[in-house]
Amino acid sequence: MPKPRSTGKFRRAKLRHKLFTLGPDFLLRGRLRERHLKNEIALRHFDVHLPNWRNELGTLRIGHLSDLHFGDLMPSERVEQIVDALRDRDLDLIAFTGDAVDLEWRGIEQFFDLLVSVPTTLGHVMVLGNHDHLDDPDAVVEAARARGIIVLMDEVVTIERPGHGSIRVGGVDWTKRLQECSERIAMISEQLSEEDRPVDVLLSHNPKGFIEATRQCIPLTLAGHTHGGQVALKGRPDRNLAVAHRLSAGFYEREGSALFVTTGVGSWFPLRVHCPPEVVILDVSKGEWVEPDPDAHSAIQP
Ligand SMILES: [Fe+2]
Questions:
Q1: Structural domains in the chain?
Q2: How far is the CA of 228 from the centre of ligand 1 (A)?
Q3: pTM above threshold 0.90
């Protein structure tokens, strides 16, 4: 079994990084990266009412982060600003939906240390993204678990919620293909007894997980991966460069199940236009579906 970092995928990702980030930044004498890191990070807060949400769970406050891409475009100081945005928010759960690292995993311990330093009533859960698989996915998982983060690799965790029964959070490991993603989500469900299905919240780096989540009436799926294309039309986050993704940014609802695709906090090339990096807080409760509007929207100053 070759070491993950020797794979073609890792080498191609490094080449892309040279072509789209290091090369242009070198030609512009560091100004490209410098300007990119001055981009404000949006802090968005949504009230999400879900028809399939179980009444007994009450309101659950989730801090949702995704696509950190720790590396050249995500230095340590920015990681700190991002995680600090979730502090003192009375969170029940922090959900990280993958791509903690950009290329090399070393150094990611700082992010996990910071993440678990934010208190929550129910804990910290995460799944891996495609970039986490490039270098050494086992090392990423180990570093997270060593700090108490629940890494969901095609599995479900049931967390007691005093006064509100228990919440079931499922998570699917990265896969690009729709069919494999769907099969794995179905497998997660089979880990629960029939009366305990479906999971309440599903984490899937790939938004395609929503297709199977809808079939299973999973109330809420959280995803990332697309970065919202990083470039979008003004005022139209859904019209963006992520043309290969039908589910590319924001909320989607089908038959009582909802998906939220965050545009993520990091980047894989140093440009974002009308698509700011974002940290998200979701107040989830039972109710009739209405497309959520951010009821609070502020910026984290770099
Ligand atoms: Fe990503």
A1: 4-300 (3.60.21.10)
A2: 10
A3: yes
